[in-house]
Design brief:
The complex is a heterodimer of chains A (221) and B (246). Chain A is mainly alpha-helical and 221 residues long. Chain A has one domain: Orthogonal Bundle (MetI-like fold). Helix content of chain A is 82%, strand content 0%. Chain A has 8 helices and no strands. Chain B is an alpha/beta fold and 246 residues long. Chain B has a domain of 68 residues. A 6-stranded mixed beta sheet of chain B has the order 6-7-8-3-9-10, sandwiched between helices. A 4-stranded antiparallel beta sheet of chain B has the order 2-1-4-5, covered by helices on one side. The radius of gyration of chain B is 18 Å and the shape is globular. The two termini of chain B are 35 Å apart. The chains are: A mainly alpha (221), B alpha/beta (246). Chains A and B meet through helix 5 and helix 6 of A and helix 2, strand 6, helix 3 and helix 5 of B.
Chain lengths: 221, 246
């Protein structure tokens, strides 16, 4: 490896890592937190079978899962200004990622809720608890425990999907790399380098997942 | 009289499961409901606590009259707060320890002070011989232990009546024995109990009143002593003869 290349790689490492820490990771965490709120709400609506709301929830999941994430980003960022809605790149990305991931996670959590035996609900009813109390204290914790590995999958997947935000001018890790490539003409080394940084992020998340499963694992489902 | 129900009817998909069941329970009574599988006894018990909503029927529970088919959610909640229910499959909250299983209904549903709830829960777990296991999760307990915790959960709220739905059917004889002895103790303390069971020894020795059901009707009911010694109906006699053989 030439000295020049080593110089470029070490120089660029922090130039890529910093937008990773200041953009990619916040984008992932904020979007995923919002996605979980959407997902739990949509899963509860479906589980409870509230008539009209359930149809709306199904429609939402159908549209979001049936269209590409990139198209959704473009519609919101480049399309909505046509009808007078202008959103800055970062919030636009958060909005799209949250809505997109919310649809997938809603299905994961719904499946988790349905996997909890009906006797748990009945036992809560007989203990005098209300539907919301049973949901909050008994069913939802068990459903999230069941869904945990799938949800961890989703957030790991999302870390990588945030690279699509480069297309709507969010200067996250991938865009930072592209800029350096444009200057140095070393696409192979630099794209491998950014790939390794994504890999490090995802490795940390996998570790967190394992730790989380151990902590949750005190009771068996 | 604590509980009286009259002419309870229930169908599932056009099949009549309950064809007019009536029952009266006095304070301190232990009523055993016997009958072959599919006789409707579990459905009947579930209707009493509104886990199933009867198609028709009237209930008088601690002095208040209810139409069993059309109750407000509030009325159902009020009834459930004064009753206990023990399931065949225990149904302990899997994400809660034995102690939390008992305190949950006190703290969350009845808004009791946490410390007071804990004291009551510990006393109740001691009573069923499970205090040493208070911090264990259901998955760490045997079936008999789980059912004893479930009984503690059902009685800790000081209910006026406790319903038992085949509490020992999922247990092998040894574990069933430890559960039955807890139930016998409760009966001796004067707890009002309605027990759907296949445990003939329990029915014969502990219950005061026996109801024999088949095909959604009560074939015969009366004092335990009389039902076991000289049943009036051929069907009751035959059922008891077959069960005693087992």
């Amino acid at each position: 490896m030439s000295e020049r290349l080593i110089g470029i790689l070490t120089d660029s490492f922090f130039k890529i890592l910093i937008p990773g820490l200041t953009v990619t990771i916040p984008l992932t965490i904020i979007s995923f937190a919002l996605a979980m709120i959407i997902a739990i709400a949509v899963a509860l609506i479906q589980f409870a079978g509230v008539k009209v709301l359930k149809e709306i929830a199904r429609f939402y999941i159908w549209v979001i899962r049936g269209t590409p994430l990139l198209v959704q980003l473009f519609v919101v960022f480049y399309g909505l200004p046509n009808v007078g809605i202008l959103i800055d790149p970062f919030p636009a990305a958060v909005l799209v990622f949250a809505i997109n991931e919310g649809a997938y996670c809603a299905e994961t959590i719904r499946a988790g809720l349905e996997a909890v035996p009906s006797g748990q609900m009945e036992a809560g009813e007989c203990a005098g608890m209300s539907y919301m109390q049973i949901m909050r204290r008994i069913l939802l914790p068990q459903a999230l425990r069941i869904s945990f590995p799938s949800l961890a999958n989703s957030i790991i997947s999302m870390v990588k999907d945030t690279s699509l935000a480069a297309n709507i001018t969010v200067t996250e890790m991938f865009m930072a790399t592209q800029r350096i490539v444009a200057r140095t003409y070393e696409p192979l080394a630099l794209y491998v380098e950014v790939g390794i940084i994504y890999l490090i992020f995802c490795t940390v998340l996998s570790r967190v997942q394992r730790w989380g499963e151990k902590r949750l694992g005190r009771y068996r489902i | 009289m604590i509980l009286s129900v009259n002419d309870v009817r229930k169908s599932f998909d056009g099949a009549q499961i309950l064809r007019g069941i009536s029952l009266s329970v006095n304070k301190g009574d232990v009523v055993a409901i016997l009958g072959p599988s599919g006789s409707g006894k579990t459905t009947f018990l579930r209707c009493l606590n509104y886990l199933e909503i009867a198609d028709s029927g009237r209930m008088t529970f601690s002095g208040i009259d209810y139409d069993m088919h059309s109750l407000a959610k509030k009325e159902i909640a009020a009834i459930r707060k004064r009753t206990g229910f023990v399931f065949q499959s225990f149904n302990l909250f899997r994400n809660k320890t034995a102690l939390e299983n008992v305190t949950e209904g006190l703290v969350i549903a009845r808004k009791m002070d946490k410390k007071e709830a804990r004291e009551i829960a510990e006393a109740t777990l001691r009573k069923v011989g499970m205090l040493d296991w208070a911090s264990h999760y259901p998955s760490e307990l045997s079936g008999g232990q789980q059912q004893r915790v479930a009984i503690a959960r059902a009685i800790a709220t000081d209910p006026e009546i406790v319903y038992f739905d085949e509490p020992t059917s999922a247990l092998d004889p040894e574990l069933a024995g430890e559960v039955l002895s807890v139930m016998r103790m409760l009966a001796e303390e004067g707890m009002t109990m309605v027990v759907v069971t296949h445990a003939m020894d329990f029915a014969r020795n502990v219950s005061k009143h026996v109801v024999f059901m088949e095909n959604g009707v009560v074939v015969e009911q009366g004092e335990t002593e009389r039902i076991f010694s000289c049943p009036e109906q051929d069907r009751t006699r035959e059922f008891l003869r077959l069960e005693e053989k087992l």
